[in-house]
Amino acid sequence: MQYKRSSALFAEAEKVIPGGVNSPVRAFNAVGGTPIFIKKAKGAYLIDEDNNKYIDYINSWGPMILGHAHKPVVDAVIEKTKLGTSFGTPTEIETKIAKLAVSMVPNIDKIRFVNSGTEACMSAVRLARGYTGKDKIIKFAGCYHGHSDSFLIQAGSGAVTFGSPNSPGVTKGTAQDTLLARFNDIKHVESIVEANKNDIACIIIEPVAGNMGCIPPKEIFLQKLRSLCDANNILLIFDEVMTGFRLAKGGAQELFDISADLVCFGKVIGGGLPVGAFAGRAEIMNHLAPLGPVYQAGTLSGNPLAMAAGLAMLTELNEDKGIYKRLAEKTAYLHKGCEDVLNKYKIPHTINRIGSMISIHFSEAEVVDFETAAKGNNDRFKAFFHGMLKEGVYIAPSAFETWFITDALTYEDLDKTIAACNKVCSTL
Ligand code: PMP
């Protein structure tokens, strides 16, 4: 493979875009090398500017659950575009997709659309604070909820402690209101709640973490969180930006049979257009402006093109036709194939999988939280990533990302992926 045109395009991009990219992980900083510029995509494949073809396991970081350029989604957007691209007024399609989403997802009466997962999580937290009248929030180390200030927080010193900013530009004041807990460690969460009694508005969590590789919750962890929230008048927010409409029609709430008070969406809900949303029971959602005092707004929120893409996507997922079963089977097949290869070459690893999310950590220890995820052999991951890329398999350029399986993948694609894994692992 040669990447001449991608390299030239990156050099041009670097002159006018910071780091040459509009979102940092695209820059290959974690794995080294020059990012690949994609020209087009169809089904399970990406084609780059040098006409190299890849089997795609990033899938735009989640949205493309049915494959790239999926015809019903593309057609819906084209048709809508002909009628005008944005009006800044209410449109009928917003209610249509809202009704569909509310019918698919448990425990939500109302939903508000925004333009990204970041906005969804930021707004859900503001609503939780406005609703409860409390300031502090608990998030989990290694969970990502977008780049709004309250979430760009790392652990401060001490066991039960305030967070500190992990990006310049986030103020100490903001960081003080975010408390950091260990994923899958209910005792730790309980101790933080105990030390901050009556101050915590919400606990926000990725019910299946996808931003430290794929890390499913331990059994009863989410149930215990639910009880802890109930006992302390704390809202439980599920950030289902990755898991929503992916792990099941009703997302992680349905899969684990646990109700959240607020749920955040992104990715799949927009069919690949910029959409996020947050949702909950009417009694909470009615605190939003213009009904209630908690302010939240957006010029392009509910944009007709974005809603058309999202509606086409959700409509197909709602019909189901075996999609979720197929996705889980394909993911299990890939898991077994890669596991056999890694065992054959005696490469220490842990594969985590749930539904259509899967990741390989190059570490033998069980991966249950950020600390254990960070124990993976990063040099080995880099070599694996570049090896797979050379073989025409595009996985996320970071060991801390989940792979997303799309229904467009065939078993032939999966076999090719496993064969690529075999070739690469023989050299690791
Ligand atoms: N929450 C989760 C769980 C995410 O994975 C992401 C993005 N990867 C976000 C929030 C932020 O979404 P966006 O990038 O659309 O702002």
UniProtKB/TrEMBL annotation:
Catalytic activity: (S)-4-amino-5-oxopentanoate = 5-aminolevulinate
EC number, as in UniProt: 5.4.3.8
Entry superkingdom: Bacteria
GO MF entries: glutamate-1-semialdehyde 2,1-aminomutase activity; pyridoxal phosphate binding; transaminase activity
First-listed, main subcellular location of the protein, grouped into a coarse class: cytoplasm
Nucleotide-binding recorded as keyword: no
Listed cofactors: pyridoxal 5'-phosphate
InterPro entries, A to Z: 4pyrrol_synth_GluAld_NH2Trfase, Aminotrans_3, Aminotrans_3_PPA_site, PyrdxlP-dep_Trfase, PyrdxlP-dep_Trfase_major, PyrdxlP-dep_Trfase_small
Modified residues (N6-(pyridoxal phosphate)lysine): 267
Keywords: Cytoplasm, Isomerase, Porphyrin biosynthesis, Pyridoxal phosphate
One Pfam family recorded for the sequence: Aminotran_3
Protein localization: Cytoplasm
One Gene Ontology CC term in the entry: cytoplasm
GO biological process terms, semicolon-separated: protoporphyrinogen IX biosynthetic process
SUPFAM superfamilies linked: PLP-dependent transferases (SSF53383)
Known pathway: Porphyrin-containing compound metabolism; protoporphyrin-IX biosynthesis; 5-aminolevulinate from L-glutamyl-tRNA(Glu): step 2/2
NCBIfam families: hemL (TIGR00713), PRK00062.1 (NF000818)
Similarity section: Belongs to the class-III pyridoxal-phosphate-dependent aminotransferase family. HemL subfamily.
Subunit structure: Homodimer.
Protein name: Glutamate-1-semialdehyde 2,1-aminomutase
Native source species: Xanthomarina spongicola
